[in-house]
Amino acid sequence: MRKVYLDHNATTPVHPEVRKAIEPYLDDQFGNPSSIHWAGRDVRKGVEDARQEIASFFGCQPLEVVFTSSGTESDNLAVKGIAYRKGNTGKHIITSQVEHPAVINTCRFLETQGFRVTYVPVNRYGIVEPDSIRDALAGDTILVSVMYANNETGDIMPVPEIGAIAREAGVVMHTDAVQAAGKIPIDFGTLPVDLLTFSGHKVNALKGTGGLIVRKGVEIEAITHGGHQERGRRGGTENVAGIVAMGKSFQILKEGMEEEVAETRRLRDRFEKGLFGRIPELVLNGHPTQRLPNTVNISFRFVEGEAMLLNLDMMGIACSSGSACTSGSLEASPILLAMGADPTDAQGALRFSLGRGNSEEDIDYAVDAIETVVNKLRALSPLYTSPKEAKVR
Questions:
Q1: Is the pLDDT of residue 383 over 80?
Q2: pLDDT at position 166 over 80
Q3: 184-210 mean pLDDT
Q4: In the prediction, which pLDDT does 393 show?
Q5: Angstrom distance (rounded) from CA 355 to CA 294
Q6: What is the tens place of the pLDDT at every residue in 198-222?
Q7: How sure is the predictor about 111, in pLDDT bands with cuts at 50, 70 and 90?
Q8: Among 253, 272, 300, where does a domain finish?
Q9: The domain that contains 63 carries what CATH number?
Q10: Distance between CA atoms of residues 122 and 130, nearest Å
Q11: What is d(CA 393, CA 388) in angstroms, rounded to the nearest whole number?
Q12: Do 151 and 177 fall into the same domain?
């Protein structure tokens, strides 16, 4: 059975060059990077070289890069770090209804600590309107947090415009760029944001690694207390292999991202064209053009999404019914519901996300498999009438 992986927004396979780069740190370069002797110095160089590569990719200063264990920890550090640091000057936070659970649930926690959170709506495409941020600003607003790209629909948010509004108001701006990094250009140097989250395993590095870019001059409260690591902003011995892996991944992306993105978009468009050309009653969730080049979120009407997932899995197709961080939930995607999607359509939505390693043969096999599964499940649905049956009637 052919296996086709179309869930790169959940995680990505480790790049062969990344695997090779970390081998020394799993063998003879084992020291603690905080040690001052030779074993520590050799490892410290690997950490700082990776920091330099990541800074070069994002267009920031190396000392602005803080290493963490994941995108989720980075979001927590950004949102809680600003809330705890600035809580004496204000208690109001603005975010959107379609943020990743790492931001949404952090904000909900802060509401139990006396903070007030405004969850701004999105338009019918799932995109935050800058004016909604402007309208939500108050005298005690201390933070605006809006993701760069949505993990389920791939929608790209107008972060430059939103950041400019926050900066004009003197409010700290955070963006979760976990899904956007490596798929669209990001220049932190010119972007009007103060904090930016990224992750390793979304860019063909290792799970358990992430980072937060903190603009020089922005002060945040640490939420993991311990040693002096990361200039006191995140205690704990660094995940050296994971950090080196991220550095290598972003180096590879800096050299070849444009070509890789173009190929991914070509395959994504082939996939979409195949599905919409062969299967009736489909709904594209999200903006038709203002989205990531690798992401397709489609509602298959008259079909239940979980049933499709199980059937596609048996045919070797790996995809998702939403965020990997909400898997196991039988509820319709809150992201799609926030966009105003029909609840029944939302229940039949699947996310397909392409990436390195996918081929035309993968795409064509997937389209065939999806058509087979949809036809099978619709034949069992009392709500669906095929075009041929409708014509006969």
A1: no
A2: yes
A3: 98
A4: 44
A5: 7
A6: 999 999 999 999 999 999 999 999 9
A7: very high
A8: 253
A9: 3.40.640.10
A10: 10
A11: 9
A12: yes
Question: What pLDDT is attached to residue 338?
Answer: 95
**Mind telling me the catalytic residues?**
325
* High-pLDDT (> 70) share of the chain, %: 95
Q: What is the CATH number of the domain that holds 318?
A: 3.90.1150.10
The residue ranking higher by pLDDT, 135 or 325, is 135
Same domain, 158 and 209: yes
The DSSP code for 9 is T
Q: Which residue range(s) make up the domain with 198? A: 16-253
Helices 305-314 and 360-379, packing angle to 10 deg:
130
Q: Compute the distance between CA of residue 83 and CA of residue 95 in angstroms, rounded to an integer.
A: 13
- H or E segment and range at residue 54: helix 38-58
387 in the same domain as 288: yes
Total count of domains within the chain? 2
Say what angle helices 240-278 and 38-58 make with each other, to 10 degrees.
30
In terms of domains, do 158 and 286 share one?
no
Tell me how far CA of residue 378 lies from CA of 301, 375, 390, in angstroms: 9, 5, 14
Answer with the one of 224, 253, 282 that is the final residue of a domain. 253
Q: What is the end-to-end Cα distance of the chain in Å, rounded?
A: 39
Q: Are residues 161 and 177 in the same domain?
A: yes
Pairing state between β 92-96 and 141-145: parallel
188 and 121 together in one domain? yes
Q: Which two tokens stand for residue 233?
A: 């902003």
Report which secondary-structure segment, H or E, holds 310.
helix 305-314
**210 shares its domain with 277:** no
Sheet of 92-96: strands edge to edge? 65-68, 210-214, 195-199, 172-176, 141-145, 92-96, 116-120
For the cut 60, the answer to whether the pLDDT of residue 353 exceeds it is yes
Percent helix, strand and coil across the chain, each rounded to 5?
45, 15, 40
59 vs 57: CA distance, rounded Å: 6
Do 239 and 168 fall into the same domain?
yes
Task: Determine how β-strand 195-199 pairs with β-strand 210-214.
Answer: antiparallel
